[in-house]
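It would be a great kindness if you could assist me with a short task in structural biology. The matter concerns a single protein, recorded as an amino acid sequence and a row of backbone structure tokens. Kindly check, if you would, that the fold set down in the tokens agrees with what the sequence suggests. Thank you for your consideration; the sequence and its tokens are set out here:
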Amino acid sequence: MAAIQKKPARSRTTKKSREELNTEGRERKQQKKHRGNPSGARQQDNTRKGGRGTDNTVVDPRIGSKKPVPLIAEAKTSAKPAVKKPAEPAKIKLSPQDELTKLENDERLDALLLRLEQDETLTADENAYVDKMLERIDTLMAELGISLDEDDDEEKTEDIMQLLKGR
């Protein structure tokens, strides 16, 4: 008889019992069940979501400025140089006599009074300026005790310019 050659022995896989198959099935079902988002995830705002996805987000560099914004407005700093108004001379406290002399020699007031004498109409600003200056002259004259002699009829008709100039 010829010698029968034996085939190498295969490792036998043991068949799983019904209980083992059931437990593996349940585990697969649990893993499938836990895929996806948790319940109520759509209603939660993005600030509550943490962990996944927030670290890898790319922020658009064009949005926003890195320049700090001052909370208290200090000096105006702009790209254009601001047009400065001419600085008003420092108001020096003059004595009443010096102020009266200055007002009597005021060229603008003289020109406006001359125009009034010639029956020209003045603008509202010019009228306001004339009234203000004449009132100031009256108060200064009252402070200094200077009074206009209005006893004579001639002096009443005298020109206001001549009174101011002291002629």
